[in-house]
Design a protein that fits this description.
Length: about 90
């Protein structure tokens, strides 16, 4: 009886934990592709430099393009810091 209890408990834990997957937003790219897969799996891929590039990939798929909320913006030449006292 104990073996059956532990098997059921272990199965319940695996089923409860399986859908909880971490998504990672890459702050280097301004556009993300969000796609839906079987069993409710949602994948977010932030590796696109333009909305048009993302839309070309999403065409024909169960997916949509969205702005990356963690995008840092394009680096400018003036944003590079120099050591203190150096001109």
């Amino acid at each position: 009886m104990r073996v059956l209890y532990w098997m059921l408990l272990t199965s319940a834990v695996f089923l409860a934990v399986a859908p909880a997957m971490a998504q990672r937003y890459d702050p280097r790219y301004p556009v993300c592709l969000q796609s839906w897969h079987q069993h409710g799996l949602v994948v977010i891929n932030c590796s696109y430099t333009s909305i048009d590039q993302c839309r070309m990939t999403a065409s024909g798929l169960s997916a949509t393009c969205l702005e990356n909320p963690y995008w840092r913006g394009w680096p400018s030449q003036n944003s590079q810091r120099r050591p203190y006292g150096v001109n």
